Amino acid sequence: MTASTLTLNIEGKDAAYSRALGTAAIIASPMLLLSGLLYGFAEIPRNRITATLGFLFVLGWAASAIGLRLLKVTGTGVASKALFLVQIVLLLLAASQQVQEFVFEHPEGNGLIYIVADIAWPLSMLLMLIVGIFILKAGVWRGWRRVPALICGLSLPGLIIVGVTSGNRAAGGLLFGVATTVGFMLLGYAVRTGRPAGRI
């Protein structure tokens, strides 16, 4: 097998992986919005339905993170690798919160384990701002593909700002649900249609 053939095979596999990862991210993107539509946006309850929807959302989110790494759109240096590792750890912790809420009627009784998992959610969301900055700095993507990660990262500050300024938590929750759906759906599509740039 020649070097060029091997390169084509690797790129072909990476393209298939990125399509699958992007598709998973697209499918999972509206799950938080669906929770709000089912239970209201002011304060979504903890139950097995919302835990399942949240878990699916995190899986899609992780798929997009892996896709970004696969396509190397956040760069190839040590900082990019560290960012990816931090993101995956936080997403695993966030997913563990959904597992706890599915299994336990009162998951807060798990103490520090639940508290850490709960904190991982907003930290993961804010980390998307840094991911967006890395995408801009790397310059691998052009045009609209540079925007979705920033939309994802701004969704939480948007929730807080709208909720505080309007005095309406439901309005902030609705904005958050729409922003996360749009942001992660576009990010998933960007990964799905992105050009492979090599292996992780």
Notes on the structure:
- The chain contains seven helices and no strands.
- Helix 2 packs antiparallel against helix 3, helix 3 runs parallel beside helix 7 and helix 6 runs antiparallel to helix 7.
- The N terminus is likely disordered.
Query: What gross morphology would you assign?
Result: globular
List segments where confidence is low: pLDDT < 50 over at least 5 consecutive residues: 1-10
Distance between the termini: 22 Å
Q: What is the helix tally?
A: 7
Helix content percent band: over 70%
Provide mean pLDDT, rounded: 89
Strand content: under 5%
Radius of gyration: 18 Å
DSSP, total strands: 0
The helix/strand series, from N terminus to C terminus, equals HHHHHHH
The main β sheet shows up as: none
Structural class: mainly alpha
